[in-house]
Prior knowledge:
Distance between the termini: 26 Å
CATH class: Alpha Beta
Strand order of the largest sheet: 2-1-3-4
Amino acid sequence: MARYAALTHEEFAEICARLDAGESTRADLKSATKHLAALLVHRAPGASVEVRIPPFAAVQVIAGARHTRGTPPAVVEMDATTWIALGRGQLAWADATVRASGERSDLSPYLPLDVA
């Protein structure tokens, strides 16, 4: 799994302003996705759940049984737009369209991550 560096709150806010104005680029989506993934890793350290936001990021989070090969016991997958809305607190977990399976795959206790 790759390690992602979080942006500063100000850098993230600038990207969010472009997203909200409909002027974002693919690079903005990628940066925002990786930023929020880095914050989730910090907030929920562990390796029992794999969170996938293709094609930009995949991280392992939440304490519990660690997996090293094959499909992890819990997987959460969504598109970047959904991930960014969840991470910003603009979308509730219960209202999001995500593919989630396995124990501990509810990320709602860790959201939002950055409310820029």
